[in-house]
Amino acid sequence: MTMMVGLLAAMAIVLRASSGSAQTTETAAQQAFKEDVHATAGLTCAACHQGAPATYAALPRTAIAPLCGKCHSDPAYMKGFDPQVRVDQYTQYLTSAHGKRMSGGETRVATCSDCHGAHGIRRVRDARSSVAPLNVVQTCAKCHDDPVRMAAFGSRATPVKDWSASVHAAALLKRGDTSAPTCSTCHGSHGATPPGVTQVANVCAQCHVREAELFRASPKKAIFDQIDQPECLACHGNHRVEHPTDAWVGFKEPAVCAMCHDERMKGASTITATQKGLADMTAKIGAAEVVLTRAERAGMLVDDGRAALRDAREHEIHSRVLVHAFATKPFADMADPGVRAAQESQTVGERALHELQVRRRGLFAATVVIVGFLVTLWFKIRRLGGAGGEPHA
Ligand code: HEC
Ligand code: HEC
Ligand code: HEC
Ligand code: HEC
Ligand code: HEC
Ligand code: HEC
Ligand code: HEC
Ligand code: HEC
Fold first, then answer.
1. How would residue 17 be classed by pLDDT, with cut points 50, 70 and 90?
2. Worst-scoring range by mean pLDDT, 4-18, 114-128, 146-160, 170-184?
3. Cα of 317 from ligand 8 centre, angstroms
């Protein structure tokens, strides 16, 4: 009985809430539509709604994509507005993880208006668009950061949090570097599906060309294909991509190689050589920097040393990329000249410091000679003065 009352009260609240929102959304719809790209193109509410304005209501979710697709798949119609416009969004959508399920009647996946909005749709180039690079993550997060919605599909709601903690998010959101990838860069927007295990390197290769080339040419490619490891992801992950360090190479945590390798397995000598190459280079570059700085502070010119150090640092950067050759020789061909350049730089600095010492020693010797000369002179003068005064006595 009390349950019935409670249920009725809840229903009443829901009804009141929904009728209230219907009234406000109608104005909200009109309000938002003023700046909508469709309004700008001269379309009206009737482009998407049927019947009298008073009866406009939310469209059934499965009907939305076919509705938007009606115009957006029609090249003759769309090219009347913009000859360059793409008309493949709906067909792409039908191939996506979202579209396939929606066509099957599953309405909790995304449709056009979930990503673009229904009213107040802006051009995708507009920074205020819900699909602009800086806003895409919030758009996907509406669902992919919602554990309840995702649990219904046996999926985790982790991509958004993980991506937000990545180097990519830092580059995009903190530094405004729009060349860094957000959700739709890697998944596509309309054909959104997770890339398969063997296509991952292609996704990352769009931007990390060199690492991908090296990986593909390396023995690791075939090995990972064989053990079904998803290329770059085995070491870097997909969403929470972090800044790697030299400590990633080796047989102990935090080395990523340690997930699979120990000292006895094939590849051990390469891992050891790579680890040593990286450590040597860092140590030598550090030592050279210390010596050069000391020389500069003492006023010595060490331009040659600075040039060699810059060269060493270049090699250091490229060596970190050459880790992806997963072989001793290509890595050493890059790292060894770097170590030599750092050594050379240190030598220039040491020579400068040595020269400084020699000069200081020379200065000291000269001072001793001059002081000695002055003292002798003084004695000579005194003796001369004494000799001059004596005869008068
Ligand atoms: C480009 C297509 C399009 C145009 C043009 C359009 N609508 Fe809608 N409208 C939709 C879609 C799609 C929904 C469903 C939104 C949803 O379920 O998220 C909707 C929903 C609504 C609803 C239900 C409440 C809501 O906001 O979800 C109202 C009321 C409404 N529209 C009124 C209008 C009015 C008034 C206009 C003209 C000023 C208009 N619409 C123009 C696509 C459009
Ligand atoms: C999962 C989110 C998502 C869904 C669902 C979605 N879009 Fe998009 N759409 C985007 C993103 C992101 C962009 C901008 C990036 C790009 O150019 O691909 C975009 C761009 C567009 C553009 C601009 C031209 C172009 O292709 O770049 C149009 C038009 C468009 N979408 C229409 C649609 C239509 C119609 C549907 C439904 C059939 C739809 N979208 C479904 C995310 C989505
Ligand atoms: C009656 C035809 C029609 C329908 C239905 C329609 N659109 Fe459009 N849409 C257009 C036209 C025309 C333009 C403007 C094209 C232009 O000027 O480049 C446009 C532009 C857009 C753009 C901006 C593309 C860009 O260049 O950045 C997006 C996004 C978009 N529509 C999404 C939708 C969505 C989502 C729906 C369904 C809710 C929808 N459209 C329904 C005709 C339509
Ligand atoms: C309206 C809610 C909603 C929005 C918005 C949405 N998605 Fe989804 N998406 C889902 C649901 C639900 C699934 C099905 C869950 C699953 O298969 O794990 C899904 C599936 C996916 C899948 C396939 C996952 C798999 O394991 O097969 C990808 C990839 C994806 N979405 C990417 C995106 C991207 C990228 C965006 C933003 C541009 C986005 N989604 C926006 C609800 C949404
Ligand atoms: C740098 C590229 C990249 C970016 C950026 C990215 N993803 Fe992914 N995502 C992947 C790859 C690769 C996979 C496939 C993972 C696998 O095969 O193990 C994946 C898998 C997924 C899946 C499938 C289920 C899962 O959790 O693995 C979903 C859903 C998804 N991504 C959504 C998103 C959303 C939402 C965003 C934005 C917050 C995003 N992705 C950003 C590359 C990316
Ligand atoms: C659309 C371009 C793009 C795609 C696709 C992309 N990245 Fe990146 N990546 C970047 C940018 C930009 C940075 C930031 C560079 C910086 O910090 O200066 C970055 C940084 C990184 C870093 C850190 C580099 C460092 O020195 O800290 C790693 C590791 C990385 N990405 C791996 C991946 C992997 C793995 C994938 C595929 C799953 C991927 N990226 C996909 C553009 C991309
Ligand atoms: C077997 C593990 C492994 C695989 C597979 C792998 N990487 Fe790496 N990656 C590393 C290690 C280790 C480093 C760190 C090197 C260092 O800093 O000394 C690194 C560094 C990077 C960096 C930063 C380079 C820099 O300038 O410091 C990028 C970007 C990157 N990897 C991209 C990729 C891409 C793209 C793929 C796939 C084609 C990939 N990686 C595959 C282990 C791996
Ligand atoms: C996901 C597991 C996994 C990870 C992580 C991994 N490896 Fe491997 N690696 C293997 C397997 C499996 C082999 C093949 C061993 C064999 O043939 O006995 C191998 C072989 C190698 C080989 C020998 C290739 C040849 O045939 O010439 C090298 C070199 C190598 N790995 C380097 C590395 C380095 C460096 C790292 C860390 C940055 C790393 N691996 C991380 C699984 C892995």
1. very low
2. 4-18
3. 22
117: left (phi over 0), alpha (psi -120 to 50) or beta: left
**290 pLDDT exceeds 90?**
yes
Cα–Cα distance between 300 and 319 in angstroms, integer? 31
Angle CA(189)–CA(43)–CA(96) in degrees, nearest 5?
Answer: 20
Q: How far is the CA of 160 from the centre of ligand 5 (A)?
A: 9
Express as a percent the part of the chain with pLDDT over 70. 89
pLDDT of the residue at 10:
47
What residues are in contact with ligand 2 under a 6 Å CB criterion?
65, 68-69, 72, 86, 89-90, 93, 98, 110-112, 114-116, 124, 131, 136, 184, 189-190, 192
Q: What is the pLDDT of residue 386?
A: 64
Ligand 1 centre to CA of 128 (Å) is 19
Does any ligand 3 atom lie closer than 6 A to the CB of residue 46?
no
- Is residue 22 scored above 60 in pLDDT? no
Q: Give the closest residue to 330 by CA, choosing from 255, 277, 257.
A: 277
For residue 364, the model assigns a pLDDT of 86
Nearest to 151, CA basis, from 143, 161, 163: 143
Ligand 4 in reach of 142 Cβ (< 6 A): yes
Question: Which residue reads 């290329």 in tokens?
Answer: 231
Nearest to 92 by CA among 188, 216, 178: 188
For residue 284, report the distance from its CA to the centre of ligand 8, in Å.
28
Residue nearest to atom 13 of ligand 3 (CA): 38
User: What gap in Å lies between CA 68 and CA 112, rounded to an integer?
Assistant: 7
For 291-326, the pLDDT digits (tens) are 999 999 999 999 999 999 999 999 999 999 999 999
Which atom of ligand 3 lies at the shortest distance from residue 118's CA?
A: 38
The 10 Å Cβ neighbour count of residue 234 is 15
Average pLDDT, the chain: 90
* CA distance to 18, 120, 185, per residue, from 63 (Å): 21, 19, 27
d(C-alpha 107, C-alpha 62), whole Å:
7
